[in-house]
């Protein structure tokens, strides 16, 4: 099979399309003939070697999280050959930038019937991040005031739509040239973050920082007394910031989380897409041979939605 192999950690140019062996499956797994993947910020971190203590210190790597394709072989009671599926693997485990990918049965769900494989591959990691952040961490309820920081990025595009489905009143922050898109996604109010800060009037029940830029001290006056900051920000290496975050977490005003590939949540995403209540946002697609260019675009530009790799 063909795969975009990372010869060495570092630059996007280090990807090389090579022929590699088709992996074998174990009990509880499926082999997916993979038609598309996508580029997530965590994938660029793996590519650069920032997670090499977990992903491996040496040797060639096949990275990538999201997948969408057709089950080729199955040792799972939940899927059979021919099923169209989508989902994502742990980013460190990777292997989604390839024609075939081995997937644990609880990391996949049946693909929405009304979208393409490329569109399906754009969804899993970002849609589940948005869904789990809003429902599990933010516990968003109808009528609440929600602010989504980075509302036109990969996670942000999903979060706006899901928050509206949950009945929230949504404010989004983005750059000026993305404000029209933010409105089309469903934002009730849009703030140009380059000109205006987040309102310090204590109106928000939840602030969802999809851009992983904010601290509680930045927005504490923007939150209601019981309001919370939900963030995808990873732990910091800075001691002062670590201590500040620990205090915020102890006070239960900030909830930092990592998305989990859960089949039942993927099923919710499928239902939302098929009902027309959640739509993929794909900015550009690249062939597998141009995986490096896809990474360059994500790192160099202000991307709306997702960049997809067609395999």
UniProtKB/TrEMBL annotation:
Residues 10-309 form the Enoyl reductase (ER) domain. It holds the Pfam family ADH_N. InterPro entries: ADH-like_N (IPR013154), Chloroplast_QOR (IPR052733), ER (IPR020843), GroES-like_sf (IPR011032), NAD(P)-bd_dom_sf (IPR036291). It comes from the Bacteria. This is NAD(P)-dependent alcohol dehydrogenase.
């Amino acid at each position: 099979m063909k795969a975009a192999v990372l010869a060495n950690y570092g630059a996007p140019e280090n990807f090389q399309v090579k022929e590699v062996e088709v992996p074998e499956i174990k009990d509880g797994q499926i082999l997916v003939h993979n038609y598309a993947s996508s580029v997530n910020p965590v994938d660029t971190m793996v590519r650069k070697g920032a997670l090499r203590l977990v992903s491996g210190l040496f040797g060639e790597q096949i990275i990538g999280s999201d997948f969408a394709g057709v089950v080729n072989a199955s040792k799972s009671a939940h899927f059979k050959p021919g099923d169209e599926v989508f989902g994502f693997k742990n980013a460190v485990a990777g292997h989604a930038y390839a024609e075939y990918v081995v997937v644990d049965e609880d990391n996949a769900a049946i693909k929405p019937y009304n979208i393409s494989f490329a569109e399906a591959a754009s969804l899993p990691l970002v849609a589940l991040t948005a869904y789990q952040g809003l429902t599990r961490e933010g516990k968003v309820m109808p009528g609440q005031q929600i602010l989504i920081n980075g509302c036109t990025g990969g996670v942000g595009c999903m979060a706006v739509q899901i928050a509206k489905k949950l009945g929230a009143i949504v404010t989004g922050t983005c750059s000026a040239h993305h404000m029209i898109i933010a409105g089309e996604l469903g934002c009730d109010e849009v703030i140009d973050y380059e000109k205006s800060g987040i309102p310090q009037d204590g109106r928000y029940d939840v602030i969802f920082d999809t851009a992983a830029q904010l601290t509680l001290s930045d927005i504490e006056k923007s939150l209601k007394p019981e309001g919370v900051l939900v963030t995808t920000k990873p732990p910091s290496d800075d001691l002062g910031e670590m201590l500040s975050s620990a205090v915020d977490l102890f006070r239960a005003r900030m909830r930092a989380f990592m998305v989990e590939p859960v089949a039942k949540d993927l099923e919710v995403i499928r239902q939302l897409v098929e009902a027309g209540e959640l739509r993929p946002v794909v900015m550009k697609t690249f062939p597998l041979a141009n995986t490096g260019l896809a990474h360059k675009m994500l790192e160099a530009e202000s991307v709306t939605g997702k960049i997809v790799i067609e395999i």
